[in-house]
Specification:
binds magnesium ion, alpha+beta, T-fold, 37% helix, binds flavin-adenine dinucleotide, globular
Length: 363
Amino acid sequence: MNSDRLTINNEKRIEISNHELLIRKSFLSFTRTASLYILIIFILLSCSKTDSSRAELALGTVCSVTLFEEGKTSVYEEIFTRINTIEILMSVNIPSSDISRINAAAGIESVQVHEDTFKVIERAVFFAEFSGGAFDPTVGPLVSLWGIGTRDHQLPAQDEIEKILPLVNWRNIELDTETHSVFLKLPGMARDLGAIAKGYAADEAAYIIRKAEIERAKIDFGGDIILIGIKEDKSLWRVGIQNPGLSKGNILGILQMQEKTVVTSGVYERYFIKDEKRYHHIFDPFTGYPAESGLLSVTVISDISMDADALSTAIFVLGYEKGMDLLTVFPGAEAIFVFEDKSVRVTAGVDFKLTDESYWIAE
Ligand code: FAD
Ligand code: MG
């Protein structure tokens, strides 16, 4: 029932007795008031505190954000809009993205990109140099050849790998900081920011949360985690570290810490098994095969998620000793190394408790 029907239809109005009208008017007035109250409650709920999280599929994974007791809808909206923008700029699966345009123009011409993309590419090149090429953002041809994580994964022939290896070399990237242009010198080269851009997206989400003056939050973008603020009861944050021997969601142990970022690279994320051997998605750019450094996973605990993302991948490729050399350059950075023999090493500042007793802490 609505007020228009009562006032517009004159014939009907004549048929309605005064008593009926009174009842209908009272009912109308009641529903109007109730609707108003519902509207006010809805607005209050959406503008104020909602202790909830939001998760969306983006960046090829589940991106989840929890703003705890200060979860304003507008902040969630801003975060997920930002993530989508980053994906549109940096995904290799979107033909119009900056990265796809750079790859399509490899060996032909340089491509001007958005400042976000340029920032991530510059940092990726820094980590390529810093890691002596273990981290290499030009692994694109290897990612395509192996197809790990896709239905078309394969174990390529040795000569196929040898043919594309010269295309994997970060030194053949030319950057123009004035114009934000990027040039891949050889035709067939391809950039891939899969090992660093999720970290950048997590940092950007954290920036939005801090700007909104939200005190406590948790960001988890498929293994790239940022914890913001101090828990209400002042206890440390607790993060479950993925068990690299089991499927996703099974933990190896619990890490306790203050406000930090935690990023893990491991063999479990994307892989296929052939003749009882596991072929995973983190490549050694020098051999063209999945890295075999004796590690199952590396977790880096630090302050900037983009750096921790690049570091965890680089350290995974380099292995424990050389990886430790890299880590020590970053003040305050800590790590958890999980080895193929099921031993686990943690750096001095890590508070980690194993929960899977088939693993053991090595001194
Ligand atoms: P990391 O160790 O951080 O990175 C491993 C990845 O980096 C590999 O998968 C490879 O891409 C690359 N890599 C491998 N070896 C090296 C090396 N030596 N140096 C540098 N890089 C290396 N996945 C989808 O399935 N569908 C999508 O639509 C999709 N869109 C994405 C969009 C964006 C913008 C990004 C950043 C990623 C996207 N992904 C997508 C990829 C997906 O989320 C990856 O699994 C993820 O980026 C790998 O991250 P990781 O943390 O598991 O491993
Ligand atoms: Mg990484």
